[in-house]
Design brief:
Helices cover 45% and strands 22% of the residues. It is α+β, with helices and mostly antiparallel strands and 252 residues long. It folds into two domains: 98 residues, Winged helix-like DNA-binding domain superfamily/Winged helix DNA-binding domain (Arc Repressor Mutant, subunit A, Orthogonal Bundle), CATH 1.10.10; 141 residues, Endonuclease, Chain A (2-Layer Sandwich), CATH 3.30.870. It has an eight-stranded mixed beta sheet with strand order 3-9-8-7-4-5-6-10, with helices on both faces. Helix 1 runs antiparallel to helix 6 and helix 3 packs across helix 4. The N and C termini lie far apart (50 Å).
Length: 252
């Protein structure tokens, strides 16, 4: 839904044209000073301050003061639904409509959670399909846990390996101490994969992927997949991976 349609929804909630501009600007910024909102909304600062104070009074936004400077951010659209219970249907429309804009320019982590085998399978296949030729995947896996076998059929798992091979994808995988011998050799030769065993004192359960700007952690029992997208988080986990890789033993 575009901004024009969202403004129509806000108008149903009683927002003026300038109030809608301020609200949408703050939605995208995530947290900002009045001067930043004014610049984003292309409105005079004094006008924006007046609107921010009014929206704060009506509980559409909130604020806090840090070192003499007031910072604003919008309340979740869910809060609007609670405040304006008699307009619940309209407020819920706003909630879904703002999803693509909410804190778009702020550096907040984005997370997706899947808890069924079919959704996990589709999400992982989507990750692989969207990778460019020659991409690199870094993983920490627990072969004896059988996470892949609990989510994928043998045919589906083979298709993923063939897709990785077709795209020339390189996989660097860390596995627990002593677990390499339990890996089916066919899975090794059917893809471009480098495997190292971690030290005996390093314990890990589950399957963790570091792919581009995201981390995917999944398990087959119980089935769950969490995908986190945030540059600093990904870089931090990649740093841990690099350290573990440097102290691990090459197996193939």
């Amino acid at each position: 839904m575009n901004k024009t349609n969202i403004k129509h929804i806000l108008a149903e909630l009683g927002f003026s044209e300038n109030e809608s501009k301020v609200y949408l600007a703050l939605t995208v910024l995530g947290e900002a000073r009045a001067s930043e909102v004014a610049k984003k909304a292309d409105l005079p600062r004094t006008t924006v301050i007046s609107i921010l104070e009014r929206l704060s009074t009506d509980n559409f936004i909130t604020n806090h003061t840090y070192r003499g400077v007031i910072y604003y951010w919008i309340e979740s659209p869910k809060t609007i639904a609670n405040i304006l219970s008699y307009r619940l249907e309209v407020a819920n429309k706003l909630d879904s409509s703002l999803a693509s804009l909410y804190r778009k320019e702020a550096h907040f982590p984005a997370a997706e959670i899947y808890d069924t085998k079919s959704k996990i399978k589709n999400a992982i296949e989507k990750i692989i399909s969207n990778l460019r030729k020659g991409s690199v995947i870094y993983t920490i896996d627990t072969p004896e846990a059988g996470n892949y076998a609990k989510i994928f059929s043998n045919e589906s798992e083979e298709n993923i390996r063939l897709l990785k091979k077709k795209k020339d994808i390189i996989t660097y995988t860390l596995v627990p101490f002593g677990s390499f011998k339990g890996i089916d050799n066919r899975k090794i030769v059917s893809q471009n994969i480098k495997i190292r065993e971690m030290s005996e004192n390093v314990k890990f359960a589950g399957s963790l992927w570091i792919v581009k700007n995201q981390i995917a952690h999944f398990s087959g029992n119980p089935p769950f997949l969490v995908i986190i997208k945030h540059e600093n988080i990904v870089n931090g986990i990649k740093g841990v991976f690099d350290f573990l890789w440097s102290i691990s033993v090459t197996k193939n």
